[in-house]
Design a protein that fits this description.
cell membrane, mainly alpha, membrane, MATE_fam
């Protein structure tokens, strides 16, 4: 076996550490969009309006998750730096404070999101037939927010400690349980779209308690107090603010895309829900390398190894491109049948197939973008990421507001929308690539100043 591996042209000295983190992360990440696709298929049995409602509410919830993603990504980078510098107790301390911050933010999200539900659904352009489904799903699923944010923070702690296997086990268990409950609640008990939402609440709650138990055990092992500290909460919030701005810019792109699709018609928003989840499935798969990059780059910079950081980054970018090419071929292969699990509506079927052409073609660029985003995040270069996300969002908006409406026909309207989305991916690739070629992000030490 060693002789065979040494003869493989893609063999590289960093592959072992990349794969040790990326492979478990890959399966953990794709479990979420696979569940969302399963959820879409189950809710799709309730009709086009229910599927569209899931798409609208899902974007609101994904926005909430995205703007709080610093709880996972920021924690991963901070803990990995401490780990690389040999300060494991300091890393666990950062993680404990991050989980307390997650609880506080989750409670605020529920308190604010519940009364604003109708406003948020209306802002995304849901029709009168779609809006009731969207509001029902949104309000129930909001109850899972504190659990979900705790899961994100706990994931960041373990990945920063170079443990990608435990997050895999938690993700697979929670999403399998979620899908099973969804099927029972919707298809057997006939709870409608509310059944799908309640299954999410139960599954996320179980995962949150699992992560809390893991972090408590790590804290006791390292002699770290479980009580929150004011300084730690401020530090976690401050470090995450730039990532918050980055995430807001990215979610504006997703929300505008959804809002435009909703205004193109019920068939377009239903098709967009499916195409977007397929795109998310592929991006999450490539994001496995990016998240491995957060852990690896943080550890190398914490240990002061700039050369190792450069070499590992180059290799991860190569894998991002290769995965992107594989996914391009895969999407084209399944495209004629991709609509089957989700709809029997001929118009929705045509729209799904047409939009997937653009989804397929953007995959190599998506691979580069995901990897470089993770690398710079692992380096703690959040300020640049915030500004880059803002400028690329501004580059996207004119295309999103012009291309769909200038297209002649409903099919070309959705294709135009996805073309605008591809312009955004290209802009992100260029801005992140320019940064990675420089040296400003290569700051070493246990704590980035």
């Amino acid at each position: 076996m060693p002789q065979i591996l040494s003869a493989v042209p893609f063999r590289h000295r960093h592959d072992r550490e990349i794969f040790a983190l990326a492979i478990p992360t890959f399966f953990a990440l794709i479990s979420e969009p696979l569940f969302l696709l399963t959820d879409s298929a189950i809710v799709g049995t309730l009709g086009t309006q229910a599927l569209g409602g899931l798409g609208v509410a899902g974007q609101v919830l994904l926005t909430l998750v995205a703007v709080c993603i610093f709880l996972a990504y920021g924690t991963t980078a901070a803990v990995a730096r401490r780990f690389g510098a040999g300060d494991v107790p300091g890393g666990v301390r950062d993680g404990v404070d991050g989980m307390w911050l997650a609880v506080l933010l989750g409670a605020v999200a529920v308190a604010v999101g519940w009364p604003l539900g109708p406003v948020l659904v209306d802002a995304l352009g849901a029709s009168a037939d779609v809006a009731p489904y969207a509001l029902t799903y949104l309000r129930i699923s909001l109850l899972s927010t504190p659990f979900l944010l705790v899961v994100m923070a706990g994931t960041g702690v373990l990945r920063g400690l170079q443990d990608a296997r435990t997050p895999l086990l938690v993700a697979v268990a929670s999403y399998v349980g979620n899908a099973a409950l969804c099927a029972v609640f919707v298809l057997v008990l006939d709870w409608g779209i509310a059944g799908s939402a309640w299954s999410t609440v139960i599954a996320q709650g179980s995962a949150a308690f699992w992560y809390a138990a893991m972090v408590v055990r790590a804290a006791r092992r390292e002699g770290v107090s479980l009580a929150p500290t004011a300084a730690g909460l401020r530090s976690s919030a401050s470090a995450g603010f730039a990532l918050f701005l980055r995430s807001v810019s990215m979610r504006v792109v997703a929300l505008v895309t959804t809002a435009v699709a909703a205004r193109l018609g019920d068939a377009s928003i239903a098709a967009h829900q499916v195409s977007y989840n397929i795109w998310a499935l592929l991006v999450f798969a490539m994001d496995a390398i990016a998240i491995a990059g957060q852990s690896i780059v943080g550890r190398y910079l914490g240990a002061g190894d700039v050369r190792g950081t450069r070499d590992a980054t180059r290799r991860m970018v190569e894998w991002g491109v290769m995965l992107g090419l594989v996914f391009t071929a895969l999407v084209f292969l399944v495209m004629p049948w991709a609509w089957i699990p989700f709809t029997s509506d001929p118009e929705v079927r045509t729209l799904i197939t047409a939009s997937l052409v653009v989804v397929a073609l953007m995959q190599p660029l998506s691979g580069v973008t995901m990897v470089l985003d993770g690398v710079l995040m692992g380096a703690g270069d959040q300020r640049y990421l915030a500004w880059a996300s803002l400028w690329t969002m501004l580059a996207f908006l004119p295309f999103a507001l012009v291309l769909p409406w200038s297209a002649n026909g409903s099919v070309w309207g959705l294709v135009g929308l996805w073309t605008a989305f591809a312009v955004w991916i290209l802009a992100r690739t260029l801005t992140l690539g320019a940064r990675a070629r420089g040296t400003a992000w290569l700051v070493t030490g246990a704590i980035r100043p």
